[in-house]
Amino acid sequence: MAAAKSNTNWFVIGVSAAVVVVLAVLATVVVVLNNQATAPGVAPDSEIVNQETGAISFGDGDQTIDTYIDFMCPICGQFEDAYGEQLQAAAADGTITLNIHPISILDRASQNTQFSTRAANSMYCVATEAPDAALDYFNLLFANQPEENTAGLSDDQLIELATQAGADSAADCITDGTYSRFVANRTTETPVDPATGNFGTPTVAINGDRIDNSEIATEFAKILG
Predict the structure, then answer these.
(1) How many other C-beta atoms are found inside a 10 Å radius of the C-beta of residue 44?
(2) Cis peptide bond upstream of 146, omega within 30
(3) The model's pTM
(4) Phi, psi at residue 49, to the nearest 5°?
(5) Contact (CB, 8 A) for 100 and 134
(6) DSSP state of 206
(7) Residue 110: beta bridge partners?
(8) pLDDT in tens, 38-62
(9) 45 closest CA partner among 191, 182, 208
(10) HEC assignment per residue over 68-136
(11) Any idea which fold 56-224 has?
């Protein structure tokens, strides 16, 4: 009886040890998966992209204007209609440095096609593969902006626009979604509204300070005239 009891104890100990090993393996898998899910992803390697902030920069003026936009966002389209030409002209003549941040908050409004992420990814693809075409492509994306709650533009349509802008070399990057995880990571770093603790699009910062949308016209007038 003593021997049987001893064997039983060793069996229990062995099973317990095995459970500990399994739990350790599962814990490791969970950590790895979580790390993969939150990893910043491949950063665009381009002379006009800041890999830390995700800004795609135009111009070299001392004053900086950062805009955070979602290519599905209708208010972003209105913002570009109102201020896009002025901002780009001021960047071209050295008055400002214009930092554009493509982010993704409206994937839910594109019938499960993740248009916002795909469009932002495509913007980074063009900025990487054909920097000189990036601003033209940016403008084409808004000129062809889909409505909310539609499927958005397909990858083939994004590639057509990239080719129209002179960035046909970005096609594979667009299809592969090369910078999709980078887009997701940068989106979470969008400056929040201190009143609500949330962020949205468009968001504007001047010289590093986020401004309320109600102040945009006044603040831009001081810089752009």
Answers:
(1) 24
(2) no
(3) 0.83
(4) -115, 125
(5) no
(6) E
(7) none
(8) 566 899 999 999 999 999 999 999 9
(9) 182
(10) EECCCCHHHHHHHHHHHHHHHHHHHCCCEEEEEEECCCCHHHCCCCCHHHHHHHHHHHHHHHCHHHHHH
(11) Glutaredoxin (3.40.30)
